[in-house]
Write a structure and sequence with these properties.
By secondary structure, this protein is an alpha/beta fold. It has three helices and 28 strands.
Length: 420
């Protein structure tokens, strides 16, 4: 027996395989641990970025008066899961392995996002329990003030917000939003330029990055229509249709069945109040000028749209009180989708108030100039298109205006900052 044992230890046949197997165990442990460390570090970095992005986006949404604390969790989950699906470093695990926890404070305007990711290490979990799960945290708050300038409400169309042919849109200290989930929800091409405090797309965007300042935030949760609960003004008995071809004319508030039309060199002065444009257009053409202080235009009926011609001038401010307080143009929600409301005016620089077209398509065309001399303007439309070189300026200087800003437009949002 002793001889056989001695023979086993002195026999060199097969010793290499045995030795290799014995040495391979610690080698595999070291290699597996190194791979685990690389994966762990990479995963944690990506998850931290996802948590920070979710916290920043969620706190901006929390700044809206319409957003409740309970709304924050699904908003944060949307941002995180979007990164989880798209980021190859994170997608090594399944979506079910990622837990999103939020703590939102409306009073302090802060959002904390905690993430726990349960991954599959090769070896490290046998050595340390701390490797599972990966935990990251980010907290954001608001500082400063940012309002809503532009919202394209359509939830699924390509080019719901479209700019081309050297057109420019400058939103001063306020945000631009497109609710469409299409990968080309926003499109800025052909030397057009868009500038804002921030631009958000529920889908994606198309066009050179240099066309945007700053680059749009993609996969953003859709923003709520801040005027969705605003009731429409009443429609009264019909006045006769107005059609003028020259001279100066003063109009009173009321319901204009068949619309208001100018041709040639006409000056229309609107007394303060609400003008219901029913079953016909507000069509300003020729070399006409329209002037109205504290006026609101409500459009009802499929033929009720506005169209400002190339050589026209418009100087209009919204009402201070009543059902259209702060709203310059208001489209009936019962309208069909994407009727065209057109501005081609060489001078629509005083458009102070909200352009609200919840079903319509706003087209700003030619070399028109819109909003430059307005203290503030807001545009909310189903779709928005700017083409052939117009210059649009959306100011947000609310303090200098006597026109009230509708709730939900401003000041609703602040500059998001990470504090942890």
């Amino acid at each position: 027996m002793l001889g056989r044992l001695a023979q086993l230890f002195t026999n060199r046949r097969g010793n290499f395989a045995i030795s290799a197997a014995i040495l391979a165990m610690p080698l595999l442990a070291v290699t597996g641990g190194a791979i685990d460390f690389v994966i762990f570090s990479n995963q944690k970095t990506k998850l931290q970025a996802a948590a920070e992005s979710a916290a920043l986006a969620s706190v901006l949404e929390l700044g809206l008066s319409s957003t409740k604390e309970s709304d924050v969790k699904p908003i944060a989950e949307t941002y995180v899961m979007s990164n989880f699906r798209e980021d190859s470093a994170i997608s090594l695990g399944a979506a079910d392995d990622l837990k999103v926890m939020t703590d939102a404070s409306k009073a302090d305007t802060t959002v904390k996002v905690d993430l726990e990711f349960y991954w599959q290490p090769i070896f490290a979990h046998l050595v340390s329990d701390g490797i599972m799960p990966i935990k990251v945290s980010a907290t954001a708050t608001l500082a400063g003030v940012q309002s809503i300038c532009v919202i394209a409400l359509d939830t699924g169309a390509a080019k719901s917000l479209h700019m081309s042919a050297a057109s420019t849109m400058k939103a001063v200290k306020c945000g631009i939003y497109a609710n469409s989930t299409h990968k080309r929800a926003i499109e800025v091409v052909s030397s057009a330029r868009m500038a804002s405090a921030a631009t958000y797309s529920s889908g994606g965007y198309r066009g050179p990055v240099t066309s945007y300042k700053p680059k749009p935030v993609t996969d953003s949760p859709p923003i709520r229509d801040p005027l969705m609960s605003r009731p429409a003004p009443p429609v009264g008995p019909c006045k006769e249709m107005v059609e003028e071809t020259g001279g100066t004319h003063i109009l009173d508030p009321g319901t204009y069945c068949g619309g208001i039309v100018t041709k040639g060199k006409v000056t229309l002065k609107f007394r303060p109040g609400i003008y219901v444009i029913k079953d016909g257009p507000l069509k300003i053409s020729g070399d006409s000028t329209v002037i109205g202080k504290n006026v609101g235009f409500f459009f009802t009926g499929d033929k009720a749209v506005f169209n400002f011609g190339v050589s026209t001038q418009a100087k209009l401010t919204a009402p201070k009180k009543g059902p259209m307080a702060g709203i310059l143009f208001y489209e009936d929600r019962a309208s069909t989708y994407n009727r065209e409301f057109v501005i081609r005016s060489k001078d629509a620089e005083l458009f102070e108030g909200t352009v609200y077209l919840p079903k319509g398509k706003l087209i700003i065309d030619k070399k028109s100039r819109v909003g430059q001399r307005s203290a503030w303007t807001a545009i909310i439309a189903n779709r928005i298109e700017s083409r052939k070189g117009p210059q649009v300026v959306i100011n947000s200087n609310y303090a200098s205006s006597t026109i009230p800003v509708p709730a939900g437009i401003a000041p609703e949002k602040g500059r998001a900052l990470l504090i942890k």
